[in-house]
């Protein structure tokens, strides 16, 4: 390996290991907003502020991925932090909406149950030297659908024409989001199965 290639490898590694980046900061902000949303919905029931929190979460979710690519600020911690922030926010929202009886409890259970299912696959991945696999586009589409659905369902917890329309569109996005969420999870499980069949076990020292 030449001196130039070694320098390039070190640079690439340092880029991957960066922590203080704009996309990571946005993901961290999204994590901080999780307890804020829960308090607003379950405590004083300030739905207007809760809607603003949801919109900010959706905007930061869009921006962190876009900025990571456009500013060349992708990193290992970002690849973990972004989906973790999404999972925690989805969990917080279904708990809050379930608590308010805006969504049935079976729906509040079936969404995080998919993440429990995927987490159970991690030990199998580790036997092949992986901690995770690339996120499937269906998972991204499902998250986007749910981030549209939740504000609409919260807005629909009122009376009037606007609330009725929000409720209809909110449930439409919810149905699509849940279906895509689980479909993406099943495809992820097939990816793990294919990896197990085509790669050898990593020997632990």
Strand residue content: under 5%
Order of helices and strands: HHHHHHHH
Q: What would you call the structural class?
A: mainly alpha
**How much helical structure, as a percent, in the residues?**
over 70%
What profile does the largest beta sheet have? none
Got a strand count? 0
Q: What distance separates the N and C termini?
A: 28 Å
Q: Based on CA inertia axes, which overall geometry fits? A: globular
Radius of gyration: 20 Å
What does the average pLDDT come to?
85
Any idea how many domains?
2
Description:
- The protein has 8 helices and no strands.
- Helix 2 runs parallel beside helix 4, helix 5 runs parallel beside helix 8 and helix 7 packs antiparallel against helix 8.
- The longest helix is centred in the C-terminal third of the chain and has 38 residues.
- It is globular.
At a glance:
It is a multi-pass membrane protein. With 205 residues, the chain is mainly α.
Indicate the topology:
Elements: H1 3-16, H2 22-42, H3 47-70, H4 76-99, H5 105-119, H6 122-126, H7 137-155, H8 161-198
Characteristics:
205 residues, mainly alpha, 8 helices
């Amino acid at each position: 390996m030449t001196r130039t290639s070694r320098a390039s490898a070190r640079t690439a590694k340092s880029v991957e290991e960066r922590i203080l980046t704009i996309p990571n900061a946005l993901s961290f902000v999204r994590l901080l907003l999780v307890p804020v949303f829960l308090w607003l919905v379950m405590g004083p029931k300030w739905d207007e502020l809760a809607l603003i929190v949801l919109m900010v979460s959706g905007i930061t979710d869009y921006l962190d991925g876009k900025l990571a690519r456009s500013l060349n600020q992708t990193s290992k911690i970002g690849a973990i932090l972004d989906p973790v922030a999404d999972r925690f926010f989805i969990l917080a929202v279904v708990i809050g909406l379930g608590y308010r009886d805006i969504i049935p409890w079976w729906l509040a259970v079936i969404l995080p149950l998919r993440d429990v299912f995927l987490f159970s696959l991690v030990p199998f991945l580790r036997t092949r030297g992986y901690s995770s696999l690339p996120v499937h586009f269906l998972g991204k589409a499902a998250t986007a659908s749910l981030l549209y659905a939740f504000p609409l369902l919260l807005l629909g917890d009122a009376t009037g024409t606007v609330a009725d329309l929000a409720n209809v569109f909110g449930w439409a996005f919810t149905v699509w989001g849940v279906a895509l969420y689980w479909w993406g999870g099943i495809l992820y499980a097939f990816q793990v199965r294919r990896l197990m069949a085509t790669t050898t076990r990593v020997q632990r020292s």
